[in-house]
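hey can u check if this looks right to u? its 143 residues, i copy pasted from the old doc so theres a chance i mangled smth
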Amino acid sequence: MSTTRLRRSGAADLAFVTALERAPENREQIGQWTEEEHLEAVARRRGREHWIIERDGEPAGYLIAFDGRARGAGIYVKRILVRDKERGIGTAALASFLDEACGRRGVEFVWLMVRERNHRAQAVYDRVGGHRSEWLDYELPID
């Protein structure tokens, strides 16, 4: 049986993370961060967290979260990305992160945003018990 676990990312993980993020099959679904942005999250600056998802001891993806408890904003899952899709890795990793995050003092909720067209991600969030909130996103023009 395969095991999925999270570990904190280190600078040595940056090549894996950026290659996965920039792979053609991921570019349309995942925002593109600079190496500096990733390293800031790895260093846990400004409330950011960076986790490597491991499957059987090998890197299989990553997760980025922001700790917004000080502002009453819970924990925000900014990004979760796995290399091998449709194998339960993302579901197991998100469930593990939820267990870890909800064990922290003062966490009232964990939230995320997903593109409407990203049905695979929505299915993962449904499997871990997520539901749509009453909030709607609006994009405002920048002139």
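The mean pLDDT is 91.
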